[in-house]
Specification:
The chain has about 100 residues and is α+β, with helices and mostly antiparallel strands. It is about 40% helix and about 15% strand. A two-stranded parallel ribbon has the order 1-2. A two-stranded antiparallel sheet has the order 3-4. A two-stranded antiparallel sheet has the order 5-6. Helix 2 crosses helix 3.
């Protein structure tokens, strides 16, 4: 659990990652990552920056509208519930150590 939350803290403002990327980096399963993040009530951990691998926005304990609002405040371009510039702002972790790479 701590590993997942520590990785989420590393996602820069204005960027996103996916449950799948977090799972790879933490050695977990995407569903387990989602469950861990759903229990996070600490506003210091930016769980709103985690989205589905297809760029869709869902799964936020404060509601999807709030998640979209927070992402837009950070400059993320969204249409409906989908990120428009997904590949440009995708934050990837290298291996299981949490070292980031950006494509």
């Amino acid at each position: 659990m701590e590993k997942v939350l520590e990785l989420v803290k590393k996602i820069p403002k204005g960027m996103i990652t996916t449950y799948r990327e977090l799972a790879k980096a933490s050695g977990s399963h995407p569903r387990k990552v989602a469950k861990i993040l759903s229990k996070n009530l600490n506003n210091k951990i930016p769980c709103h920056r985690v989205v589905y691998a297809n760029g869709c926005i869902a799964g936020y304990n404060r509601g999807v509208r709030k998640k979209i609002s927070l992402l837009r405040k950070e400059g993320v371009k969204i249409n409906g519930n989908k990120i428009l510039n997904f590949q440009e702002i995708l934050y990837r972790f290298k291996g299981r150590g949490g070292t980031r790479t950006r494509e």
